What we know:
This protein is an alpha+beta fold. The protein has four helices and eight strands.
Amino acid sequence: MTTTAERLLVRPARAEDDAALLAVDGASWSSTSGFPSLQGETRTSFFDDHNTPDLHLVAESDSSVAGYVRITTMVPFPEGAHVLGIYGFAVVPAARGQGVGSALLVAAQEYARRRGARKLSLRVFGTNTTARRLYERHGFVVEGVLRAAFLIDGEYVDDVWMSKFLVPVEADTAGTADTTETTETGPAAPGVTPAKARSSS
């Protein structure tokens, strides 16, 4: 688990978080971070057979669920198992600017490293400058841009691919491999990745 000050906790998701995470989704997405066509969907559950609790980390701020990050494989074959992707990242508006997004990103990197990943990737709308700045502060770099990949609210939007190479756990001599000791402070912003079902990047 990751803590920031004493009011912020990042932990593995649990099945009982379903309703709270569904509410986070409902409050967090906009046309700059997600697909409007998906935002209008009526959903009764956050988790499903392909979107299970073990793929998620949850941030609690003052004991309330304030955001989440979903980390999963990028490709369905073993040759790509060393690369994991952030496919779902949201922070509720009321908790933005309080370090929640940064704490989730730090925890996501540790989660990926513990699963043996050497690289963590994500996708983000070119219009989502707040999320892009957050990713850049955490060492993610642009690897490619799909120009005008989406048409949202009458405007063409780029699909930006970003990644970060991770230091393997066994090579980490700084003592940060244990997520219970990882802390992060500073401003945060909602990061979102266009992905799969709820997504956006």
